Amino acid sequence: GAALGGCSADEVLPATSATAATVAAAAESGVGPCIPALGLSVFTAASFASEDECEALIGSAHRLLAKEAVSPQPKKCRLSIVSEIEGLLLRRLLALLESSELAHHFFGQREGLADLEVDFHPGEPAVNIYLPDGHFAPHTDKQAISLLVPLSPPGAFSGGGTAFWTNGHHGPRPTEGQPSYEPADARSWLPHDLLLNPARGTAIIFGGDVTHSGLHVIAGTRHIFVMSFSLKPRGCLLAPAAASLPMESEKDSENPI
């Protein structure tokens, strides 16, 4: 979908192999282990990003938003950010995956992830900003893996959170003779199976085929870092990812979460 902001900050630091020493360093950094939150579909890891890293990402997003000079600010927008911090978070995630069985779960190999080429979802890595009533309809990211990191400090917003569905957000399609429904009609959505609204800096990790949604913010401002990607051997082309679903169920803008 269209992205609000496309400015880049600093260059990403070059990726290095996530060797045993790198994995050990990740464990010593204070990042918590990957904890299953919804079977083998969704995982969390506490203290993945530091307070300073969260603040720096928020600051970068708002500087880019100010350059866009959009008034009034949309209820939700995405700021594409490429900086030193995103490079660090990427390498940290790959090392974390290699320190568990999740590297094989998501990518089919247990080591050497950082030697592969990263193919990001268009417009990512990014910071999404949600104002009151900002939300994002259920969708899948169609990448190998997605990382969300809440950035807002405690008490910065109410409502919000990320909802997940195990088998999609729609029930069986109506049979002949029954009223049909529109996929974007929220009245036809099933109750979500999991709602996560964890502490600032927590990693939320899940596969690109997992249906998820950004729920309505009631008050305040919600900031969340998002990075969805696949890995491929260097020099290998991947088919482009399909576009994300629109942000809202009603004639929406196309800014993805």
What can you tell me about this protein's structure?
The chain is of the alpha+beta class and 257 residues long. It is built from 4 helices and 14 strands. It has helices at residues 20-28, 51-68, 84-98, 102-107; strands at 35-38, 42-45, 76-80, 117-120, 126-130, 136-139, 145-150, 157-159, 162-165, 194-196, 203-206, 211-214, 217-220, 222-232. Strands 1, 2, 3, 4, 5, 7, 11 and 14 form an 8-stranded antiparallel sheet that branches. Strands 6-12-9-10 form a 4-stranded antiparallel sheet, with no helix packed on it. A two-stranded antiparallel sheet has the order 8-13. Residues 1-28 and 241-257 have low confidence and may be disordered.
Short structural summary:
The chain is an alpha+beta fold and 257 residues long.
Helicity range of the residues? 10-25%
Alpha plus pi helix count: 4
N-to-C order of helices and strands: HEEHEHHEEEEEEEEEEE
Described by strand count, sense and barrel closure, the largest sheet is: 8 strands, antiparallel
Globally, the shape reads globular
Q: What is the terminal separation in angstroms?
A: 10 Å
Helix/strand class: alpha+beta
The overall pLDDT average reads 81
Number of strands: 14
Unreliable spans? 1-28, 241-257
Rg over CA atoms: 18 Å
Q: What fraction of residues sit in β-strands?
A: 25-35%
